[in-house]
Amino acid sequence: MDLGLKGKTVIVTGGSGGIGRGLLMEFAREGCNVVNASRDMKIGAEIEADAKAQGLAGTIVSIKTDITDRKNVDALVAATHERFGLVDVLVNNAGGVAAQSPFEQLSEETRKWELALNVDGVVNCCQAVAEDMLSRAKGSIVNVGSNSSLLGEAAQQVVHYGATKGFVNSFSKALAYEWGPKGVRVNNIAPGWIVPYKNEDVGPGSFWNRLVVDNRGKPEQMQEALDAGHLQNMANLPIRRLGRPEDIAYLALFLASDVSSYITGQLISVSGGVYMP
After folding, report:
1. Which strand ranges, in their side-by-side order, compose the sheet holding 184-191?
2. Which pick of 21, 116, 187, 233 has the fewest CB atoms within 10 Å?
3. Residue 48: which residues within 8 A CB-CB, separation 6 or more?
């Protein structure tokens, strides 16, 4: 199916992570002009080179961005205008856990870091593209949340992170209701465990390399553990395979396109069935 995304201008935040890389590559595969808003320009350059080597129909350009700073986000949008024109699609993918700990040990530093990234970052980016979308009465925003906002067990040791993603859930629904009559759709994807193909695919500052590898091993080790039947949290999963970055990207493509033009305000978990509302 042709999703009609060729030539669309797309901003994806947090492209240096596993999910971010998948989003960038799949939007470029569809022929989009894709802006990677990320702090990690080294990984960004590697992704750009990979897209060119694969001969993807679209273009990926990395722009160093701190989404917690509204002026920095405005500069991102201005640079996007200069390169590609007005923004058609925004994917708010950047987010993360500052540190894992029991809630009673949550530090002020962790709390503020997670609020700035997971809450303020999403708000900043949505406001920054508002004029592009509302002035033309068209546009799609896809917010990436987390199963940690939906399942108590998924938020163990990261209670505050789960709560900030709960904000994203409520924010997405409220904004979808307000902007729907103005031609702009807002939807929300809640990923479960999404595993990159190799550690080198993601930056050193990513959630994966900071907090996951030491506890669960490298992607190859996780696949081996799954095959052996003892990968943590996978024993009762209805779809018993590792979630991969393209699993999130495929849904984001659908929600970004006019093929889903009658869908807004929805939250969809992509997690192999671990969450079923």
Report:
1. 59-64, 33-38, 9-13, 89-92, 139-144, 184-191, 267-270
2. 233
3. 36, 60, 61, 62
Please tell me the distance from the alpha carbon of residue 80 to that of residue 121, in angstroms, as a whole number.
17
pTM equals 0.94
Residue 230 lies in a domain: no
CB-CB contact of 119 with 68 (8 Å): no
222 within a domain of the structure (yes/no): no
Positions marked catalytic? 161
Contact 229, 181 (CB under 8 A): no
Number of domains forming the structure of the chain: 1
Do the domain assignments include residue 175?
yes
CB 136 within 8 A of CB 157: no
Higher per-residue confidence, 195 vs 265 = 265
Check: CB of residue 158 under 8 Å from CB of residue 113.
no
Task: Using alpha carbons, select from 60, 66, 67, 68 the residue that is nearest to residue 43.
Answer: 60
Please tell me the distance from the alpha carbon of residue 12 to that of residue 7, in angstroms, as a whole number: 15
Distances (CA, A) of 253 to 171, 206, 259, 266: 21, 23, 10, 15
8 Å CB contact between 209 and 43: no
Which residues make Cβ contacts (< 8 Å) with residue 140, sequence separation at least 6?
88, 89, 90, 184, 185, 186, 187, 255, 256, 257, 260
Q: Convert the pLDDT of each residue in 51-85 to its tens digit.
A: 999 999 999 999 999 999 999 999 999 999 999 99
